[in-house]
């Protein structure tokens, strides 16, 4: 029986990974370790919280003693590490928390792994580090990020993730830690905290608030449906080559302005509003400092080696996402107001 520790399992991507693993692998014990910061909540996992193979552990990866105590108690033999501060704008305002959680938190986990799994790591153990395509920096109009693209992070968030990737690789080289890393593009889907572009704009359209688009909106991102990302993580965890990296993208590049226009069209229909009503809310605002122009992923490696490809079109994924937010307005209000945090402290 595998004992899989999933860090950040109460967060957006993490909750989808936890659900997939709990449901698909009843023979594994899944431990969800999360600090329950502003972006994490257990409401997203209500459907699986009573499963026999699921345990929630409230802890902060910044606390090395707490992490060691948990290793001692539960003897995890595999880790999927998703816990991270993830919002670029927050990293611009307050880089230090990104250093603490993303860099020091990752090193704390690596040290625990070294202590409890080393010095002779067996091949059934694996440290799987989830990262981002932002480590590669910004592309011009041509080209794609491959696994060989040199790192060139621009935001404090991207720098912190690049650093954590380097630490994981360095533990692989120095101590022979078995690891795998994946770098994904922009995720979207149910349960995403409404600070990221898509859920923020869905929320603002519902409330008839303006849609703050940075600069001219001609910035390009590749969009990946979170459930497809969770499936890719499952494949990489089980079949990815030791000490290797996989890029995960949706083969789905959009300029922000074009994406927002499609979202507005969908919202007009779903909310029975006049055609064009939501698009009137688009407001160009001052640009994000150091705004990366374009991210685009070459996902050929994961496709060829592991047979992964996205299962939904962008239109289908967006519709599913919009439907979820419309059906879960209470979740949205509670997460924004911090009610879930207060509730977990009771
Ligand atoms: C929140 C917001 C965003 N934007 C623009 C900025 C970006 O060009 C694009 C997406 O922004 P967002 O903040 O949603 O995501 P990125 O900055 O691309 O980064 C995201 O994707 C990577 C892979 C991660 O690893 C990050 O964790 C994740 O946050 O929309 C606006 O124009 N207005 C807004 O209010």
TrEMBL record:
EC number assigned by the record: 4.2.1.46
Q: Which Pfam families does the entry link to?
A: GDP_Man_Dehyd
This protein's UniProt keywords: Lyase, NAD
State if NAD is listed as a keyword.
yes
Q: InterPro entries given for it?
A: dTDP_Gluc_deHydtase, NAD(P)-bd_dom, NAD(P)-bd_dom_sf
Kindly report, in one word, the top-level EC class recorded for this enzyme: lyase
What CDD domains does the record point to?
A: dTDP_GD_SDR_e
List the Gene Ontology MF annotations in alphabetical order. Answer: dTDP-glucose 4,6-dehydratase activity
The coenzyme or cofactor needed here is: NAD(+)
Question: What catalytic activity does the UniProt entry give for this protein?
Answer: dTDP-alpha-D-glucose = dTDP-4-dehydro-6-deoxy-alpha-D-glucose + H2O
What positions does the domain NAD(P)-binding occupy?
5-321
Q: Does the keyword Lyase apply?
A: yes
Q: Per its UniProt record, what PANTHER family does this chain match? A: DTDP-D-GLUCOSE 4,6-DEHYDRATASE-RELATED
Q: Report the sequence similarity comment from the record.
A: Belongs to the NAD(P)-dependent epimerase/dehydratase family. dTDP-glucose dehydratase subfamily.
Could you tell me what this protein is called? dTDP-glucose 4,6-dehydratase
By which gene is this protein encoded?
A: rfbB
């Amino acid at each position: 029986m595998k004992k899989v520790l999933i860090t950040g399992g109460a967060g957006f991507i993490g909750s989808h990974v936890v659900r997939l693993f709990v449901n698909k692998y009843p023979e594994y014990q899944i431990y969800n370790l999360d600090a329950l910061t502003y972006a994490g909540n257990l409401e997203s996992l209500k459907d699986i919280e009573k499963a026999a193979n699921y345990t929630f552990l409230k802890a902060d990866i910044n606390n090395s003693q707490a992490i060691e105590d948990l290793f001692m108690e539960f003897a995890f033999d595999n880790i999927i590490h998703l816990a991270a501060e993830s919002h670029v704008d927050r990293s611009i305002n307050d880089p230090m928390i990104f250093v603490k959680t993303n860099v020091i938190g990752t090193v704390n986990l690596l040290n625990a792994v070294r202590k409890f799994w080393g010095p002779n790591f067996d091949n059934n153990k694996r440290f799987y580090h989830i990262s981002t395509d932002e480590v590669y920096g910004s592309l011009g109009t041509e080209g794609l990020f491959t696994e060989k693209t040199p790192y060139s992070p621009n935001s404090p968030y991207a720098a912190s993730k690049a650093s954590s990737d380097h630490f994981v690789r360095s533990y692989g080289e120095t101590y022979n830690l078995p690891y795998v890393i994946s770098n994904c593009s922009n995720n979207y889907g149910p349960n995403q905290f409404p600070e990221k572009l898509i859920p923020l704009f869905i929320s603002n359209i519902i409330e008839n608030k303006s849609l703050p688009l940075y600069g001219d909106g001609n910035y390009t991102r590749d969009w990946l449906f979170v459930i497809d990302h969770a499936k890719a993580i499952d494949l990489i965890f089980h079949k990815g080559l030791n000490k290797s990296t996989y890029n995960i993208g949706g083969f789905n590049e959009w300029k922000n302005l074009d994406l927002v226009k499609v979202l507005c069209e969908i919202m007009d229909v779903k909310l029975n509003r006049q055609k064009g009503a939501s698009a009137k809310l688009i407001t160009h605002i001052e640009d994000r400092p150091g705004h990366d122009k374009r991210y685009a992923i070459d996902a050929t490696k994961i496709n060829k080696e592991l047979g992964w490809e996205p299962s939904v079109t962008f239109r289908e994924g967006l519709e599913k996402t919009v439907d979820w937010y419309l059906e879960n307005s209470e979740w949205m209000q509670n997460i924004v107001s911090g009610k879930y945090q207060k509730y977990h402290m009771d």
